[in-house]
Structure formats: C-alpha cells, structure tokens
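Materials and Methods. Structural model of GTPase Obg. The 557-residue sequence of GTPase Obg from Bifidobacterium favimelis was retrieved and submitted for structure prediction as follows.
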Amino acid sequence: MSAFVDRVTIHVKGGDGGNGASSIRREKYKPLAGPDGGDGGDGGSVYLQADPNATSLLDFRYLPHRSAGSGTMGLGGDKDGSQGDDLVLSVPVGTVVFKAIGAEGESKHPGQRLADLNHAGDRFMAAQGGVGGLGNRHLANRARRAPGFALLGEPGQERDLILELKSIADVALVGFPSAGKSSLIAAMSSARPKIADYPFTTLVPNLGVVEAGDRRFTMADVPGLIPGASEGKGLGLEFLRHIERTEVIAHVIDCATLEPDRDPVGDYKALEAELAKYVDNLELPLGVIPMDHRPRVVILNKCDLPEARELAEFVRPDFEAMGLKVFMVSTASHEGLKELGFYLASLVSGLRERLRALARQKEEERVVIRPLQSKGGRGDGPAFTVERRQDQAGNHWYVVRGDKPERWVRQTNFDNEEAVGYLADRLAGLGVEDALRREGARPGDEVRIGPGDQAVAFDWDPTIAAGAEMLDGTPRIARGKDIRLEDAEGRTRRRTNSQRREEYHRMMDAKQAVRQVMDQERRAGHWADPAVDDDPHDQEGLLGRGQDRPASAGGGD
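The predicted structure was written out as tokens:
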C-alpha cells in the first residue's frame, strides 16, 4: 500500500483550563486573614505548522485524535496552577485546512477554508486551549470580603478538521495515462517512481528535484488525466489539486500511442479543457498566478521510435503556431532532456521573481479593516441576544446567546449557592434580566444559556435587588449565601476591632468592680471565720439565715 496520504480528517482538542482555588489564609492570631486561592492554569493549544521535512499526512491517518495538555488547579497560598503544554503538529508545506462538515458518525466533507500553509513555518491554531478559572482572591471586593467559591476552568476548543495536501512544485507534468511522465521525472531527477506498461501506474504524485547548472527546481509527476477528470472520472479531482500551486504546466504527449482516436493536438486540447473546468471553482491565495496565465510547455515524448519522431515533427508546427514552446525528447536515449532542463530552470527563475513582486504588490494593496472600539476597549455590538422559542405542543422557552453569558455559565459551579448568586449578579449587571422582561419572560419560565445540547437550562427567578426593579436607587446586594457570615447555633457574626475593644473595656471594668467588692469584704472581716454569719439576712449564704443556723459545735452553755 502506498505511504502517500494527501487528505485526512482529524479531531483536535485544546487542553482544559484548571479550576480556581477557594482558600482562606491561615496565620497565627489571624483567623480568616483573607482569601488566597490561586488561579487555575490555562490549557494548551493545538497548532498546525508547515514543515519542509514533512512529505505526507500519513501520521494523521493512524492517529487522527490529537489533544493538548490541560492546566492544573490552583492552590491555596496564592499558588497558581501550571499551564498545559501546547501541541505543535507538523504538516507538509502546501497543506490547506478546512472545517469538517457532516453529521456525527458519517463521512465528513470540506467546508469553510480556515488556513493555507503554503510557506515553511506558517502556523495555524487548530484548537484553542481553555482559560483557567479565577481563584477567590480575585473575586473579593468591598462587599464580598472572603468569597467561598472560585471560578471553574473553561473546556478547550474541540472540533473536526480536514487537512488537504496540495503539492508545492515548480513544474507539473500532466498528460494522459502511459504518456511517460514517470519515466521523464526518473530520467531528469533522482526520484524513482513506479514505472510499468499499463495505464494508471502512478497513483500518487511523485516529486523530483532537477538540477540545471547552478539552478534547481522541483518537478511533480501528476497521475494520468483523462477527459471528464474535472467531473471525477479516472482519478478525477483527487490529484488535480496538486497542480494548483505549480508555476509551469508541462504537457507530456505520447507520440507513440496506438489508439486510433487520439492525436497529440487533440490530447493537448482535451487536457486544457479539463483544466479550464477545474479552474472555475478554484480559489487561489494572494501572490499566485492564475492557472490560465501560467506558461505551458509541450513535451513530445518517445521520439526514439521512428514513427513517434515522424509524428512529432509533423505536429510541432501546429503547437508552435499556438505560441507554445515544444521539445522533442526521449527518456530512453535522454535526447533533448538537457535542453528541456535548462529551459525549465530559466523559466522557473523568472517566474519566481515575478511572484515575489506580485506578492509584495498584493500585500501593499491589502486593506486591514478593524472593528470600532468603544471607550472601554470593547466592540460596540450587542454582548448577547435573547430569543423566544416555542415547540408544537405550545411549550416555550427563552434562549440567551453571547460570548460572555456562555463563558460565565461554563465557569460557574452550580453546587455552590454563593457561586450561583454571583452568576446571577453578573447576568443582571450585563442586562440579561432586563432583556428577558422586554421579551415577555415571567418568573418560572425556562431560560437556556448556550448552544444546542450544551445549553444550561434553569427556571428564571428574578429578585427585587437586581435589574430594573431597583427604582429607589438602593445598592444591589449580592445574591447567594455564605454560611460563615450568618448566625449559626447562637453564634454571632465576626466582631470588628471596635467591638472587640469595647467588649474588652467592659470586661476589665467588671473585673475591677469585683476586685473592689472583694477587698471591702476582706477589710470588714467577712472572710475571718467561715462559721460566723455576718449577714443574717443573706438568703443565699452557705450557713443560711441567722435565726435558723445550727448551734456551734463547741457551745453548750
């Protein structure tokens, strides 16, 4: 089986962002000294990079699923999580990246073109890593001194892509099957393609490097084309794309064919017609010469045979009348190959200078359009949209879409009531609740935030402390509960410094009053003899009332 693969479908996923940490600093004599939860690390991204040493997409056929490293969770003590490692995938120069379209479980077909890696070192971000969640140290403010929650890390981007390789060569050899293209590239370079005496011997493009003096260029042997190739006949469109990036198109014509309905001029016109049909739906990048303006060269092959030489000399004036450069060659005797190599080298050298000048001109003419920026550095477009939807049964719901609301939902831990309250405050501050009211939403209606099956659904429960219902100008309080700030089992909230100082002075004054009373009793002799009842009216004394106390043990008279 051939090791050349020029189209694959891959599944890439960026690394997930790490969760933020919810932690409180612990110091001696300082309980609840403040939040110190670290941020989660960002996930790594997946990149596709054009590498001149890569020649095929074979690795992606066996390993189509690629993912970058995920970020780690933040820790207490202001320790941020580590970032995930990026994954750089090397692809051949000339790889085009498309968005894969198709239902799950079915074959994919190319959609929107995302990138064109036609230069060595070109890089494209195939899947972006998720952003790490913020720790509670970044969520504290004047009203929320010690948040008991942190934000979750965002999941990495995940999508299917189609990679399509379009060979980067200077000269493309095109022709009917068994015209001698593989023999020609083997005779002019060190390439060793498969050569046999039956049609469609070449099933994959072959590249060869040709040296002509001090000049060097690459030549591509494209598999044989037949009439109807632009419609998928023969090898069809599978390999027509490999001549999109070539600078020179060389027609290799078999002058020794035994088919009665073919002639050299007819073969040339038939292939040009197929190329014209293929070019109609072709989108070329900047700095590339349109295919119908690229120079053509006619190579009359197999001229070592007497019948073929006679036919070549007969049709040569017809090609020259079309303004084409014609060469009569033989891959068996190497006749005319040296002249052909030097001519192609000079033609390629001139075209390279022309392409560089054209690329510079296109770059200067390119107009960069940037969106208008508001004073806060954000775009002027709406941050979200609200849409009311209804099914056939009459059930209705509201769908909220927007980068911010969807990102906030992904960052929320719905098991933490305080985090849910924080999300509600953020949505209200963005204006989501006001927009839902304008769309006719009522308390208890279902609201979905996010796309399709990934949406988070909940029952809308607006509060008086948020949105347009605050008509008296009262500052909005944070929704959600923090059990550390509420009375529990008779314990009060944490005291302030002034309250501690006041309680301390009261305690010291009480101690001083007790000391004075005890000193007075000592001076009065109340503590001299425990058996003497100094206060006969004392209801709580150890000896009881004076008239009821028992006689002393030593008295009898």
